[in-house]
Amino acid sequence: MESLEAFLLRLPKAELHVHLEGSMRPAVLLELARRNGVELPADDEEGLARWFRFRDFDHFVQVYLTCSRALRTPEDFQLLAADFLAGQARQNVLYTEAHFTIGTHLMNGANGGEVLAALEEAIRAGEARHGVRLRLIPDVVRNVPAMAGATLEWALAGRDRGVVVALGLSGFEARCGNEPFRETFAEAARVGLHRVAHAGEHAGPASIRSVLEVCGAERIGHGVRAVEDPALLSELAGRGIPLEVCPSSNVCLGVVPDLAHHPFDALRRAGCRVTVNSDDGPFFGTTLTDEYLRLARTFGYGPDELAELARAAWSAAFLADAARTDLAGRSAVST
Fold first, then answer.
1. Which of 153, 180, 203, 236 sits at 20 to 30 Å (Cα–Cα) from 86?
2. What confidence score (pLDDT) does residue 1 get?
C-alpha cells in the first residue's frame, strides 16, 4: 500500500495561510544578511535554526522583523519568492495565498512599486518553471495603523496586476483592537477585494466576532479559540466561514501545549470548514506536507480524511472556478 507520505506528496494541495517573509529559510536569510549588512545572532544555518526556537510571541516577532529587514532590493524579494515557490513545487502545493507585510518594507525604505514589480516577475517565472501559482495577501498590522492606507493602495495596485487577491489583518490581536481599520476594510469590500483576518489565536472568541463584524472577514486566520464558545462555533459552521488552521505554529507559539491538545479535530467534528496551513514553515520546522502528516498521526486520519482537508482548502481559495478545477485536478509532482 502507498505510504501516507507518498500519498500526501502526490495530493494536489493549496495553502491559504503562510507568510512570505516567514517562509525565509536560514540559508536565504544568511545570503540576504550578507548582501545587506544585517547583523544576525548566528553565522550558520544551525545557529539560526536554534534562534528560531521561539520563547514566546514577542520573540517570534523579533525574528520575523529581522528577516524583513534583510529584504532591501527588488532582487532580494525575488530571491525569497523564487526559493519559496521551488519549495512549494517540491511538495505539490500548486496554489498558495501568502500574506505579505508591505507596510514594514515601506517603513524600511523600500519602493513599493519596485517591490510589486519584482514579486510579479518572480511569481510569473515560478508559474512558468514549476507550474505552481502564488497570489499575495498584503496585510495591515494592527499595531501599525498608520500604514493601513498605504497597504490597501499597494493591494489594489497588485490586484490590478493579477497578483493580489485579498487584504489581510495581522499583528497583536490581544493588545490592539480592530475598530481603527473598519473603513479600510469597508473600502476593500467596496472595490471587490477579498478580506481575511488573523483572530482567535492569542485572543479569544471575541476577537473572531470582532473581525467578522468590523472587517467583514471572509476567512479567519487561525480561529482555533472559537472552540471556547459553542455559539460562535455554531455560527462559523452555519455560515461556512473557513478557518486557516496552523497546528505546529499554535504549538510553537504556546496557543496549545502540544498537538494532542489541539482543537483541530474538535473544530472539524463541529462542522467548521478547517484548512491546513504552515504559517511560517522554516520558523516552526515544518512544511504544509508535514502538517498534514502530523495531523494524520495525531488524530488517526487516513487518505480519505486528508483528501477531504485538501478539498476544503481548494474550496476556500480565492480562485475562479475554472482555475480551481484545473489546479485541484492535477496529480503529478511539479519539478
1. 153
2. 53
C-alpha span between 227 and 213 (Å, rounded): 19
Which CATH number does the domain 4-328 belong to among 3.20.10.10, 3.40.390.10, 1.10.8.420, 3.20.20.140?
Answer: 3.20.20.140
Read off φ and ψ for residue 147, nearest 5 degrees: -95, 5
Element (H, E) at 147: none
Residue 290: all three cell numbers together: 508535514
Burial class (CB within 10 angstroms; exposed 0-12, middle 13-18, buried 19+) of 174:
exposed
Q: Mean pLDDT over residues 202-228, rounded?
A: 97
pLDDT one-digit tens code per residue, 80-121: 999 999 999 999 999 999 999 999 999 999 999 999 999 999
Which contiguous run of DSSP H or E holds residue 112? Answer: helix 112-130
Phi, psi torsion values for 105, nearest 5 degrees: -70, -35
In this structure, are residues 140 and 169 in contact, taking their beta carbons and an 8 Å threshold?
yes
Of 15, 97, 120, 201, catalytic: 201
Q: Are 140 and 148 in contact (CB under 8 A)?
A: yes
> 320 — phi, psi (to 5°)?
-65, 150
What is the maximum alpha-carbon separation in the chain?
A: 55
Q: Evaluate the CA torsion angle 317, 320, 321, 327 in order and state its sign.
A: negative
Nearest Cα neighbor of 153 from 109, 106, 198, 118 is: 106
| Structure confidence by residue, pLDDT tens digits, 217-238 | 999 999 999 999 999 999 999 9
Residues 6+ apart with CB under 8 A from 332: 10, 92
235 is catalytic: no
Q: Does the structure show a pLDDT above 50 at 333?
A: no
Mean pLDDT for the chain overall: 94
Grid coordinates of 261: 491538545
Please compute Rg for the chain using Cα positions: 19
Measure the CA–CA gap between 288 and 130, rounded to whole angstroms.
Answer: 17
**Encoded amino acid at 222, one letter:** H
For residue 2, pLDDT beyond 80: no
Residues in the chain: 335
- Which residues lie below 8 Å from residue 6, measured CB to CB, with a gap of 6+? none
